[in-house]
Specification:
alpha/beta; Rossmann fold; 5-stranded parallel beta sheet; 8 helices; globular
């Protein structure tokens, strides 16, 4: 089981410089979990790509469906818990949701958000670290 941030799912499903690493992580352990807010954030990434003309509507809908299949086991962190974690680590309530999900799952969050890793190093790890690098 791997707890992932939205950016890791984006690297898996949207071709880019870290896609191969995200694919390697998924091949190693396909049981990816996260906070349900991940799908909101991923939808926003897709909406941004659409506005910029990088994706059409059908492609965006297909990518969202892929994300939903990939992330079928999501956690719903209570809002009060997210608020408490945000205060404890000095992060946004959005980021706190992912930290709280990882905490609840008993694992560290895989994220490429360097600021989040710096704020909560004991709860996070980079994609490279997750791959053993």
């Amino acid at each position: 089981m791997v707890a992932v941030d939205t950016n890791i799912v984006a690297y898996l499903l949207l071709e880019g410089d870290r896609t191969r690493d995200a694919q390697a992580l998924f091949a190693h352990d396909a049981d990816w979990r996260s906070e349900s807010f991940l799908l909101v954030e991923f939808s926003n990434i897709l909406a941004t790509y659409r506005r910029k003309g990088a994706l059409g509507g059908v492609a965006a809908a297909s990518l969202l469906a892929s994300a939903e299949r990939t992330m079928s086991r999501l956690v719903n962190l209570p809002h009060a818990r997210a608020l408490a974690i945000a205060g404890e680590y000095g992060v946004s309530a959005y980021d706190a949701r992912f930290l709280g999900a990882a905490q609840g799952l008993g694992t560290r969050l895989v994220t490429e958000d360097a600021k989040l890793r710096s704020a909560a190093p004991e709860l996070t790890r980079s994609l490279s670290q997750a791959l053993g690098g």
